[in-house]
Design a protein that fits this description.
This protein is α/β, with parallel strands linked by helices. It contains 16 helices and 26 strands. It folds into 3 domains: 146 residues, 3-Layer(aba) Sandwich (Rossmann fold); 223 residues, ANL, N-terminal domain (Rossmann fold), CATH 3.40.50.12780; 94 residues, 2-Layer Sandwich (GMP Synthetase, Chain A, domain 3), CATH 3.30.300.30. α1 packs parallel to α8 and α2 crosses α3.
């Protein structure tokens, strides 16, 4: 029997008065977080939500996120975290596909009305029965008349709750990841998947209760959820929450709270290196930093070396996927680190590289990276065919191409052919293409990734217009942006007469990449 929320309950018993999370001027102890999560659990149970039910959550990095997350888990229900940048149709798809019975949604900001987007999507899904608005401050009424708030759910509920003893292999979280079909797939991660991954990361980074982690990676993303939230809670550390990355704010928080652990995607390291201000004591910041972690995309070796030189702190690169809970390989603190490498395997996880025929390749040769172990997902929710393709004989086929050196260190040399990684976020072109082709002026479209100094890659669309139609580039970009998450829309559009194709009509994107 195992429920991931045991990590919160254990730390609340050991460190009831210790700061669990800090957000701006608010500090919440482990006891307060656990009590609030219990109130959420009681409120959900009072509404007949519990074992096996799916509950969606759209929330940026606020203390509400861990409170709701663990409150859901305590009942035996399943958390479905949603990217806060999704638009109405995308949220509706996720609610419907996950069979969500309830939905917690942050009210948003004037420039991004997440609450309105979420409520509109909820209203289109009859099978989702409960909507709870997360207001900026406890006790605030919802700005949408007639909608219940998180405070309403928690009102009058007991701070005590007897956690449901789930089975270790019960689904804990359904995290959505884009697939080659263009439709996001829900990876079912179990309680044991997420607990063991958090334990491994905490041990490999030597995290302790004395550590202060800067949590700027979004908690709705598996990287931030496991590496910065679950691992920190497991060890009883303190997390300082930021809702968005901004180099000045990051340095301010590092200096003010004496941050010891920082994890980010490569663009964050690039941003920190390219920002200086005499008001910050960089020497003091460097003295406090114990470790940094990088993932989500390949970290340029020059950025790694420059950052380590400036702050005298090791950056540990790793490799992971949502389907791997997420960490698969990792450069380890007490072992040799190789710049550009994604490290080695750790306890309980096996990796092998295979050729197109499934035969294992020797060191130094390219092969698709396959892995198996306690980190591998249960499967894609309600998608047996997709699951069977990804999981074969217990091995998860990543689609990424790597090599292994003689010391057992892995290096990613290529990845799924068409996938774009922009600022650490994965984008599959077909999803963008299928949207853009719906525009009245678009006949055909092909989307690729192009190099970008800060974001790693950017999205570019090659568009063939319908005969007799015209549309300005900026208008088409704006039209797409209104209908898809902000990180996915193309920043660049090139209108061409025809797309290059082979004899069977397949678009030759390799020729577009050379354009």
């Amino acid at each position: 029997m195992l429920n991931l929320s045991v990590i919160l309950e254990d730390s609340a018993r050991r460190y009831p008065e210790k700061a669990a999370f800090i957000f701006m001027d608010t500090t919440l102890s482990y006891g307060q977080i656990n009590d609030a999560a219990n109130r959420v659990a009681n409120g959900l149970r009072a509404r007949s939500i519990g074992i096996g039910d799916k509950v969606a959550l759209s929330c940026p990095n606020l203390p509400y996120f861990p409170i709701i997350y663990f409150g859901i888990l305590k009942t035996g229900a399943v958390v479905v975290p949603l990217n806060c940048l999704l638009k109405k149709d995308e949220v509706e798809y996720h609610l419907r596909d996950s069979d969500a019975k309830a939905y917690f949604c942050f009210s948003g900001t004037p420039d991004f009305p997440l609450g309105e987007i979420g409520y509109a999507a909820f209203g289109a899904v009859n099978e989702c029965y409960h909507f709870f608005m997360i207001t900026p401050r406890p006790g605030m009424p919802s700005h949408i008349d007639g909608t219940a708030t998180l405070s309403d759910l928690m009102a009058g509920q007991s701070p005590a709750f007897e956690m449901h003893q789930s089975n270790a292999e019960d689904t804990c979280v359904i995290i959505y990841t884009s697939g080659t079909t263009g439709k996001p797939k829900g990876a079912e991660l179990t309680h044991s998947n997420l607990l063991l991954n958090a334990v491994m990361i905490a041990d490999l980074t030597d995290t302790s209760a004395d550590d202060v982690g800067l949590v700027v990676l979004p908690l709705f993303h598996i990287f931030g959820m496991t590496v910065m939230m679950n691992a920190g809670i497991y060890k009883g550390g303190t997390g300082v929450l930021l809702t968005r990355f901004d180099a000045e704010t990051v340095y301010d928080v590092m200096q003010k709270h004496k941050v010891t652990i920082f994890a980010g995607v490569p663009t964050m390291y690039w941003g920190l290196l390219n920002y200086t201000d005499p008001k910050f004591d960089y020497e003091s910041i460097a003295k406090n930093l114990k470790i940094s972690c990088s993932g989500g995309a390949s970290l340029p070796v020059k950025v790694l070396e420059d950052f380590e030189r400036r702050f005298n702190v090791p950056i540990l690169e790793g490799y992971g996927m949502s389907e791997g809970s997420p960490v698969v390989t990792f450069n380890q603190l007490n072992a040799v680190r190789k710049p550009g490498s994604i490290g080695r395997t750790f306890w309980g996880v096996e990796v092998k590289l295979v050729d197109a025929d499934g035969a294992e390749v020797p060191a130094g040769e390219k092969g698709e990276l396959l892995y198996r172990g306690h980190n591998v997902m249960k499967g894609y929710y309600k998608k047996p065919e997709e699951t069977a393709k990804a999981l074969q004989n217990g091995w998860l086929h990543s689609g990424d191409i790597a090599i292994k050196d003689e010391d057992g260190y892995y290096f990613i040399v290529d990845r799924t052919k068409d996938m774009i990684i922009r600022g650490g976020m994965k984008i599959y072109p077909r999803e963008v293409e299928e949207l853009m082709i719906k525009h009245e002026a678009v006949s055909l479209v092909a989307v690729i990734g192009i190099p970008h100094e800060e974001m790693g890659e950017d999205v570019k669309a090659f568009v063939v217009l319908k005969e007799g139609h015209t549309v300005p580039e900026n208008d088409l970009i704006a039209w797409t942006r209104e209908r898809i998450a902000a990180y996915k829309y193309p920043r660049h559009i090139e209108f061409i007469a025809a797309l290059p194709m082979n004899a069977t009509g397949k678009i030759l994107k390799r020729e577009l990449r050379g354009a």
